[in-house]
């Protein structure tokens, strides 16, 4: 993943977000992250899940289906708390760092109904 260090925190928050809603497993999470534009290999995601479990944000159980074993993760109370704190900070960052982008998009939306606009 390009810019790994910068984006790793966002990926972890994304994992927590889904692990709060339902149980997740590695391959599902890789596919989900791909929809959001993150390209992670199992070699990147699995150690991330393991370390989040070690730190108490996730808890896992293993389920064997025939010959295959799959590890399912869900968020702990600490994980919920961590995501809540991070969301406040994300809102703060979005408010500041994306002020211009947000301003631009609202101009676009309001100009759609404007007959004078060049669009
Ligand atoms: Zn998602």
Automatic annotation (TrEMBL):
InterPro entries: Metal_resp_DNA-bind_regulator (IPR052509), Tscrpt_reg_PadR_N (IPR005149), WH-like_DNA-bd_sf (IPR036388), WH_DNA-bd_sf (IPR036390). Gene3D superfamilies: Winged helix-like DNA-binding domain superfamily/Winged helix DNA-binding domain. Pfam families: PadR. This is Helix-turn-helix transcriptional regulator. Residues 15-84 form the Transcription regulator PadR N-terminal domain. It comes from Billgrantia zhangzhouensis. It comes from the Bacteria.
